[in-house]
Amino acid sequence: MLASELPLRGIHIPEAITGWPPAVGWWLLIALVIVLGWLGGWFYRRSLTANSAVKSARKILAELKQSTHLSTTEKLAQLSILLRRTAISLAADKKVAGLTGQAWLAYLDKTMTATPFTDSVGYLLVEFAYRKSPPVPAELDRLFACCERWLETCHKLPRDEKNP
């Protein structure tokens, strides 16, 4: 057979290698980056919520303590609201919102070394609305000091009762 009659094709150059679709390893790397980014955001929000709740509570407590335009009863009401809001924002178990009386005071005592809310001035938080006379300034000062100590120790709540 003659060379001109042979069924030969010309030289073919292979196609250029493209970047799409990526190899399996790149897909796994993308998935890993997404998961790590989501976890990082979740941990950041979790710590940010706890820290900002306590920081803002400390600021409001200081303002409340220095307030001269509020009566003693109004200060106690605002203090009770502040403690409840802070506890709700820190607690994973939302049953904290429904605690009243001695159960509420016992919850506040969980992080304290002693039981200042249950055994000492904490009764003011529960009974202030039912008292005929407002508490004396010394009692109020002791309650504010007790609340300041609680805000310092509330980060010690057990993991299952802290932020979700």
In short:
By secondary structure, the chain is mainly α. The chain has helices at 24-66, 72-90, 101-109, 116-119, 123-127, 137-153.
Structure, described:
This protein has 164 residues and is mainly α. The chain has a domain at 52-161. The protein has six helices and no strands. Mean pLDDT is 84; it is low at 159-164.
Features:
single chain; rod-shaped; mainly alpha
Could you report the average pLDDT, rounded to the nearest whole number? 84
> Which structural class do you get from the secondary structure elements?
mainly alpha
Shape summary: rod-shaped
The number of helical runs is 6
List the uncertain runs.
159-164
Helical residue percent band: 55-70%
End-to-end gap:
83 Å
In total, how many beta strands?
0
Largest sheet report: none
Radius of gyration: 32 Å
Instruction: Estimate the strand proportion.
Output: under 5%
Elements, N to C (H/E): HHHHHH
